[in-house]
Amino acid sequence: MDLSDTPEEEEFRARLREWLAKVLPTLPARPSPDDWPGRRAYDLGWQRTLHDAGYADVHWGASPTTRLIFLEETERAGAPYVGANFVGLLHAGPTIAAEGTPAQRARWLPHILRGDEVWCQGFSEPDAGSDLAALRTRAWRDGDDYVVSGSKIWTSHAEVADWCELLVRTDPRAPRHRGITWLAMPMDADGVTVRPLRTLAGSAEFAEVFLDEVRVPAANRVGEENDGWRVTLVTLSFERGTAFVGEVVACRRVLGELARAARDNGRWDDPVLRRRIGRLAAEFRALWRLTQWNVSEAEASGGVPGAGGSVFKLRYSHARQELYDTAADVLGPDGLDLDRPWVLDRLSSLSYTIAAGTSQIQRDIVAERVLGLPKGR
Amino acid sequence: MRFRLTEDQQALRTWVRRLLERRWDAGALRAAAAGPARLDRELWRELGAAGLFALRLPETEGGAGLGLPEAVLVFEETGRALLPGPLLATHLAAGTVPGAATGRTVVAGVDGPLVEWLDAADAVLGDPTGAVPLRSADPLTPLHRVPGAAGGGTAEPVAVLLTAAEQLGTAARACEMAVQHARAREQFGRPIGAFQAVKHLCADMLVRAETARAAVYAAAVTAAPADVAAARLLADEAALRGTRDCLQVHGGMGFTWEAEVHLHLKRAWVRARRGGGGAVAEEALAADLLSGP
Predict the structure, then answer these.
(1) What is the pLDDT of residue A332?
(2) pLDDT reading at A149 higher than 70
(3) Using the beta-carbon criterion (under 8 Å), do A2 and B218 form an inter-chain contact?
(4) Which of A275, A301, A320, A363 has its CA 20 to 30 Å from the CA of residue B187?
(5) Which neighbouring-strand residues pair with B199?
(6) Per-residue pLDDT tens for A86-101?
(7) Could you say which DSSP state residue A59 is in?
(8) DSSP state of B5
(9) Distance (Å, rounded) from C-alpha B54 to C-alpha B45?
(10) Contact B72, B56 (CB under 8 A)
């Protein structure tokens, strides 16, 4: 068991740290969540900056440990988060890299890496959220095209996206997990309508997408027809793997700020609150160690994130909510003031036990796939 | 960073597990729980001969020259096996109390207001003056109360960490037992493990145990006080809640003396009372947050 950097890791960390110290001071602030076109431009710009410095493909080509160091250092330095590029960089990109044809890789991957194009994720549907295999959006073949009709929901960044990684049902008679196909759909195609949804945090960061006989070239199909479920699992295991690494670093920083705020406003004298904060410190310390453990395991197994991702997500999503509930108690009456940053974070943390697989579904995954308990509800 | 067990560490863990399976099996546990708690001195000497107490002593002093990570793995296994006896105090005494390293001398330790295994001990760390026996909730751990001693105080970080390691072993074992039972026991025509309510209890047990494992192993590597405090908090939680959930999964059977579950639960309670856990750890971590810039 070794928690120290190897010489190569140390060198990578030092070089990255030096570069961040140079570029970050001149970087403007990220636009507010109400301004998604502004955020799109900003996030693409940051991706371009990373690209030009040689850090664009750290999520793909580098070892899990290198990626961990990248996320740790960028977060520590206060660098922008991947933002609008999340789906392209962490979902669609790796999927195309793993399953796409040479032509498909050449068409999409350089644009994702260079920060030219934004992707969104067309997986969830009104009747197929946690039960993703229940999706009903239909696609049928017509000449060189698929014709797609149906609707998607909870599609983050749909309004500002150029491409959508779309799951469609191509064989309605096949068993649920078969008969699904993975398509890259241009968002400016005829028949695509985007209706933004307002979240309980007040922002419009995701949307409903309506698809009315949208023509998608068959050449945009990644993987075989009716094999989209397998293609998707590659992406999902990735999502539950190390997608939250930077956030744990951020939570540890927030907890420190919280303690100092409590000291300054006198609430630190309340032993109940103080001990709660102490327990959260243990929690986020452990979550960071769990991340390092999972990454080391992934590295040993050839870079494939294991079931440790579900264990992590379950614990982390609840800890994050507890952190911002505690922040509200530190803030006192200010905990109801939407202009205080932790208050918006508290609201958005409510999605963590739902998004990317609810805690209830994650528990099923842990129980069935890790502990080997029988299937059933 | 390679935060996983080395081959040597895996081999050590397997070796200790085998040793304990051979020398302290389910039959021995049941027999011990049936009568008054007695320390098996022959077993104690065997553990000494196997190097469990002298593990961290330098080779020049007859030890194995290993470190905290290895000690943590060993104590996780003894916790898992529910091995009785003042293992921690004897381990801590190796190198200072003659005979402790080899298991010839049994050493007890005063920990706040409680002493485990005082009557069985040849030597005692701390001052047990006035100690009176109490009817111990854990049938496998005799306890004395030391009047006037304060509870929940500070403790040596190594003791806090190794207690966490034992709690981790208990948490992992409780999860295993619950899963075994949930697979085998049928109700309403299917294994109870197919029911989401049972499944989720088991999943939560694993999540708590695995989070605690990462914290305990990391604390063994860094030996940083805040890491040790975090490890102890999470391991106590994983053991206390895990054994309780395990009992729940066992249903009525879990409430009987015959099922092993209560022994694990009661031991977890005893260990949670040792110094350096609970409020002490929380306060230490809180203070640590303010100690930086």
Answers:
(1) 95
(2) yes
(3) no
(4) A363
(5) none
(6) 999 988 998 998 899 9
(7) T
(8) -
(9) 12
(10) no
**Strand, helix or coil for residue B137:** coil
Report residues of chain B scoring pLDDT below 70: 151-154, 293
Q: Calculate the CA dihedral of residues B114, B86, B160, B262 and round it to 10 degrees.
A: -80
Would you say residue A377 has pLDDT above 90? no
Element (H, E) at A34: none
Assess contact for B242 and B209: CB atoms under 8 A.
Answer: yes
Looking at residue A204, its pLDDT comes to 80
Q: Look-up: residue for tokens 């409590």?
A: A262
Q: Which amino acid is at A85?
A: N
Kindly list the distances between the CA atom of residue B72 and the CA atoms of B9, B27, B124, B168, B227, in Å, as whole numbers in the listed order. Answer: 10, 26, 23, 10, 14
Average confidence score pLDDT of chain A: 92
CATH number for the domain formed by residue range(s) A7-114: 1.10.540
| Inter-chain touch A6–B220, beta carbons under 8 Å | no
Question: What's the confidence (pLDDT) of residue B83?
Answer: 97
CA A279 to chain centre: 27
Q: Among partner residues B4, B214, B285, which is closest to A278 by beta-carbon distance?
A: B285
| pLDDT at position A304 | 59
CA torsion sign for B71, B73, B79, B81 is: negative
What is the pLDDT, as a whole number, of residue A128? 84
Q: How far apart are CA B19 and CA A362, in angstroms?
A: 36
Q: Which of B180, B202, B289, B290 to mutate: most A Cβ within 10 Å?
A: B289
Say if the Cβ atoms of A300 and B279 lie within 8 Å.
no
Q: Is B277 helix (H, G, I), strand (E, B) or coil?
A: coil
Q: Where are the domains of chain A?
A: 7-114, 119-225, 230-371
Closest residue of B to A64, CA-based?
B1
CB contact under 8 A, A360 and B220: no
Question: How confident is the model over A43-89, as pLDDT tens digits?
Answer: 999 999 999 999 998 888 788 889 899 999 999 999 998 889 999 99
Q: What is the rounded average pLDDT of the residues A109-128?
A: 94
Residue A235 has pLDDT above 70, yes or no: no
Q: Which class in CATH covers the domain with range A230-371? A: mainly alpha
What confidence tens digit (pLDDT) does each residue in A287-308 have?
999 999 988 888 887 765 566 7
Per-residue confidence (pLDDT) for residue A299, from 0 to 100: 83
Q: Which residue has the tokens 């206390």?
A: B240
- Residue B256 is predicted with a pLDDT of 96
Distance CA A16, CA A21 (A): 9
A239 is catalytic: yes
**Token duo for residue A76:** 């520590």
Residues of B in contact with A278 (CB under 8 A): 281-287, 289
> Candidates 3.20.20.70, 3.30.300.30, 1.10.3720.10, 2.40.110.10; correct CATH number of A119-225?
2.40.110.10
Q: Considering only alpha carbons, which residue of chain B is nearest residue A284? A: B230
Test B2 with A372 for CB contact under 8 angstroms.
no
Strands A138-142 and A145-156: antiparallel
Encode pLDDT of A207-224 as tens digits.
999 999 999 999 999 999
Query: Shortest CB distance from A282 goes to which of B217, B220, B230?
Result: B230
Measured CA to CA, the distance from residue A99 to residue A233 in angstroms comes to 12
As a whole number of angstroms, the distance between CA A307 and CA B55 comes to 33
Q: Is A334 exposed, middle or buried (0-12, 13-18, 19+ CB in 10 A)?
A: middle
How far apart are alpha carbons A220 and A218 in whole angstroms?
A: 5
